[in-house]
Amino acid sequence: MSALRPALPALGTVHHDAHAARRLALWLSCCFAATVLLTCCSLIIGTSSIETSLGWIFSPDAQSSVVLWQIRLPRTLGAWFAGALLGLAGSIAQGVFRNPLAEPYLLGTASGAALGVTVSLIAADASVEGLLWAAKLGVTGAACLGAAAATLLTVSLSRGVLQTRSLLLSGVVVAFLLGAITQLLLLTKPEIWRSMQTFLFGSTGFISWSSAALLGGVFCVCIVPAALLSRGLDALSLGEDTAQSLGLSLPMLRLTLLGIVSLATATAVGEVGVVGFVGLIAPHVVRETLSVNHRQLLIAAPVCGGALLQAADLVSRWIISPAELPVGAVTACVGGSYLVFLLWRRGRNV
Amino acid sequence: MSARASHRRSQCVALALALALLAGSFADAAAQALVLSDDLGHAVSFAHPPQRIVSLLPSLTETVCALGACASLVATDRYSDWPQEVKALPKTGGLEDAEIEGIVRLAPDLVLLSRTQRITARLHELGIESFALDTETFAAIARVVTVVGAILGRPERAAALNRRIESAVEEQSNRARARRPGAAPSVYFEVDRGPYAAGPTSFIGEMLARLGTRNIVSADLGPFPKLNPEYIVRRDPDVIFISPTEAPQLAERPGWNRIRAVREQRICSFTPDVQSTVVRPGPRVAEGMSAIEDCLERVSPP
């Protein structure tokens, strides 16, 4: 724990410093350049050799243009937006809970989404009505619904959003409870286990233009109010009493912020499954390399999360092509290694 | 071809071994027990055919019943659902969560299970005899029938069943060859959303190959690889096999509306009872092949 930088913003004069602003600008440009580079790479990396893909770009035929523009491009852009949503949700969660280990799935979202998907897969197998219902809703819809229901359950169990500790506890309880129900349901229908595994380890394979557009739209809907409330997050991180003494309406602030976390997480999980570590790691990468307040963090962490998931997506489809690794396994490897690196570095410095 | 030849060879060796064992046991008078080694390398001796059997794998349940010994089953796993009479038997859990207590209370003299099951060690500790069989491949079907037939003391029935299965499989292959001389439609068999495909080395893949189709997945990717969906779009299969749940949503997958099979609705889905003949390497293998071939005939007009 002590190895992780606390989820406190850099307050005082640092962020007013022109030097810090220049560093942030430089950092964001680097991330942007990386995103552009990754997007270009994602066009030429897939199930074909790089030379073949390059050939397609310059002289496309009907099939190759589908692969390039209907599959690879929306997939990489969708992965970016999903990563950005998780990065945003992670930074807000760490700010609201004042805990460096807080992450987007803390409110039981992931377990709720998994339960939603399980129920829809079982219903689809059970009856014709179930199949029609599941087909209409899709895995995405079922996951979103489950995630939203889990968040509501967590919030109602903790009787609102004011008590950090009780909220955290309810989140853990809801996650365990829904996880247990999912396991019980899976026992009765083990043939859906492989489909569930795909969802639980995350998959960017089926992101279409409409999924990418949905992810992008929700990202815009989330980032604007989050940035507007970033001062509130700064104040919250100094303690709830301080925030209240600054004249902030805590219930409203926390409710809106957690609403953003839920919306962002549910959308990302619905589209790409439970991708771990991006929401946890992205804010840490930013805080390790920059001295930022929450407004800057809420811009930098999504950019970082987006690039991270985009890179993970690229690795997942490249290493054992034409087969694929689950993208969540890649992010977990990268994220886990990064945390180990932080621990090792801090240990050495001490 | 070489893989198939080696399968045949191993099948012959297994048959010869089992027959030798059998011949040995019969020659040495009835008093001497039959000793067979299971696929975990554990030797089991049978003084007389078991009368109270628990089967923990649907394909083994089907084999026991196809050999006419359904009456000696006292319980099955919860997925065994064929033939009809096993549905009424007590259920002792699933493949990985077998109910030890339930099995012990039934006092079976043999538990039949697959090689991957963790439960074997526990059963041995409790003094219950078990016999593990690898049932994953096409070649395993005949071998399992022979071995189970030997255990049940019905070697002639086993030989007859094997001949029946072999000729039914041959008949389906011939039917496919006669219908599509020369042409091999390319197929993609999705076992799960992911997308996980059935590769040529899987049991399903072997069935597809025997029906003269060309799997779009190459053998080096393993039996059930998780594919990049783009690969399927690029391979542009003529026919897609997929669960009825996923079938209506295929065109919504990015780029999939360009796949010939999706455009021309050459999609095969099976109801759960038919699906079980397609995915279980057991005595009903020819029925599974027939279901696949029926659909191939329906969706790919000559």
Structural overview:
The complex is a heterodimer of chains A (350) and B (302). With 350 residues, chain A is mostly helical. Chain A has 14 helices and no strands. In chain A, helix 5 runs antiparallel to helix 11 (250-272). Chain A has helices spanning 18-44, 50-58, 62-97, 109-126, 128-157, 164-188, 193-200, 209-228, 230-236, 240-245, 250-272, 278-289, 294-318, 327-349. Residues 9-15 of chain A have low confidence and may be disordered. The longest helix of chain A is centred in the N-terminal third of the chain and has 36 residues, at 62-97. By secondary structure, chain B is α/β, with parallel strands linked by helices. In chain B, 43% of the residues lie in helices and 13% in strands. Chain B is built from 11 helices and 11 strands. Chain B has helices at 2-27, 58-66, 100-105, 119-125, 138-151, 155-179, 203-210, 229-235, 260-263, 272-279, 285-299, and strands at 34-37, 43-46, 53-55, 73-76, 110-114, 130-133, 186-192, 196-197, 214-215, 239-241, 267-268. In chain B, strands 7, 8, 9, 10 and 11 form a 5-stranded mixed sheet that branches. A 4-stranded parallel sheet of chain B has the order 4-3-5-6, sandwiched between helices. A two-stranded antiparallel ribbon of chain B has the order 1-2. The relative contact order of chain B is 0.11. Mean pLDDT of chain B is 87; it is low at 1-6. Chains A and B meet through helix 3, helix 4, helix 5 and helix 7 of A and helix 8 of B.
